[in-house]
Fold this protein.
Amino acid sequence: MIRAGIIYCVNIHPYQLIAYEPLATALEAVPGACVISQAEVWDAIGDQFPRTRPFMTPGLYEEALNSFANNLSSGSYPCVIGIGGGTACDSAKFVAAHLDLPLILAPSALTVDAPFTDSVAVRREGKIHYMGPIVPTKIVIDTALIQSAPPALNRGGIGDLISIHTALHDWRIAADRQGEPYDHEIARCSAEILKTLERHAHDIQEVSEAGIILLAQLFCEEVALCYEAKSSRPEEGSEHHILYNLEYRTGKTYLHGPAVVLCAILAAHLQGNTPAYLTRLANSCGVDYMPESLGIGWDALSEALLTANEYTQQDQLPYTFLQAFPPTPQRVEAALNWLSKHGGERS
Ligand SMILES: [Zn+2]
């Protein structure tokens, strides 16, 4: 059971927490910290930190995380440090809350917005649940380390930004049909993030230092707008819900960023919301979001789109176009045909 956040203040803009410094410096500053990483990440970067012995996360299943955290509770640590992608950062958040310790996060690649948010995404019976709040005292952005990750990881990070396009459309539908409060200024600022991304797509594609800094800044902006909206409406809607349903149905997890891009393109098509804008933006950032590249079957994708409405209602997820205009077999087929014809580098 997670306790209240250690340091929680919605007024903290996540950008204030960022320290651009080498991870080695951050590690030296807190000897004896409880370091949490993930095996595939540590295999790639561990040689650079020979004195650090991290615990490897068991993944994001709540039961496994609980026993992982209970085993760690016998140690005495000054803080918890999470090093890796979204899984390592979310695991570290969970453990820090469990042990009531300060938290430092050091993403090894900018694959998701998880290092910048105040919630933990855990899986329970195959479904995603958010817990929190838990806010780090510092987010270490070691640009050289992040640049050394496979380029596809950082390029795919734009998934949690591209999702703004479909999420804002869903938010408007929820406002129109359900009377949900809608903030025009927050929506305008969120859409601005996409315009900035468009202008600097080359830096993302190149995975340049400027591109890494920009991604970190845009994640912070997006998270701050969600804090202001007091919901994830500015960033998360049907595109994430479709992905959650896909992962639930297949029992697999997919590389989050590019998978969100894929689901956002399909959601945009079904929303009648300029999917070509998203394919252009994703292509210019160099993201490979085609199902084959992500290990996603077209049939599974079709099934996930057709049953997404049912999933969102069962899980009582926020209202989106999926409930307002449930995708029909004809519209799903049209969306998938459009993707196979216009998706990828060819568009
Ligand atoms: Zn996401």
